[in-house]
Amino acid sequence: MRDEARATLKIGDIEITPLLDGPLPATLGKIPDPRHRAEAEKLLESAPADALTMPVFGYLLKLGARHALVDAGAGALMSKELGQLADALAASGVSPAQIATIYMTHMHKDHFGGLVDAAGAAVFPNAELVLHETEAAFWMDRAFEDMPERAWRFFDVTRTTLAAYGDRVRRAREGEDIQGVSAHLAPGHTPGHACWLAQSGGKSVLAWGDLIHIAYLHLPAPHVVMEYDLDPALALQSRRRVLDWVTKDAIPVAGAHLPAPGIHSIARRGEAFGLATG
Ligand SMILES: [Zn+2]
Questions:
Q1: d(CA 110, CA 107)
Q2: How are the residues of the chain apportioned to helix, strand and coil, as percentages rounded to the nearest 5?
Q3: Which residues surround ligand 1, an ion (CB under 5 A)?
Q4: Which domain holds residue 122?
Q5: What digits encode the pLDDT tens for the residues 70-106?
């Protein structure tokens, strides 16, 4: 059993607790460049045996007296192993009705599936659902035929999930502070993929979605791109920029697919990065 209390990070008036949604297998077959694939295979030889299984985390934020989430897990939209975030939330003593804000990193199923129940109704009856305005525009303002082909399979389910929240969907401008948490675009994985910076008492923690996919690969070899990203070149630029930022400013990170317990400090190692230990 994971010790929730120990996994919680407290900064100023903010507490951030990882909520494990379940495991999501990745495959090196999604690396289009064969030299990069060979490099990845070699790197993973010295990684933990389950390095290719990405955990899916959402995060519970306690912002003073308010409760918020970053992402909502996969719900019932993916595998049977996923969708555990609701139980993790209950175990931390918070009900869905208490969630006032949900900060979305991006609109992919492993991050938004938990927003709705099996009947498609909103799981969080009082929550405002916040997307970076670029992500909102990509999914909400375009016709299906104007979407890139690789986004087609997400189109209907994304629209219906957002519709369940109706006028409670809010578009955040770049840098806009919403209850002490601000939006920072890190595009490429999706056009409006965003990191959320929570700040209190002069300290910060940064939550990201898919800035990296496989920690034991993308931290030591950030240049290895995968087809999970809609625009791999742009995703790589964002990855380098945000990794530079969090290492330079020593900002702890709450990553959707970082290894347990999900919140880590990142260390710079020359041109590469790693999980800081201790
Ligand atoms: Zn993801």
A1: 9
A2: 30, 30, 40
A3: 110, 210
A4: 4-275
A5: 999 999 999 999 999 999 999 999 999 999 999 999 9
Dihedral sign (CA 16, 21, 25, 26): negative
Write down the residue that tokens 């990855």 correspond to. 239
Q: For 184-213, write each residue's pLDDT tens digit.
A: 999 999 999 999 999 999 999 999 999 999
The whole-angstrom separation of Cα 246 and Cα 268 is 9
How far is C-alpha 158 from the chain's CA centre? 16
Tell how far the Cα of 66 is from the centroid of ligand 1, in angstroms. Answer: 26
Q: Tally Cβ neighbours within 10 Å of residue 235.
A: 24
Report pLDDT digits (tens) over 18-74: 999 999 999 999 999 999 999 999 999 999 999 999 999 999 999 989 999 999 999
In 10 A of CB 28, how many CB atoms? 16
How are beta strands 181-185 and 194-200 bridged, if at all? antiparallel
CA–centroid distance, residue 214 to ligand 1 (Å): 10
Q: Residue 24 C-alpha to ligand 1 middle, in angstroms?
A: 9
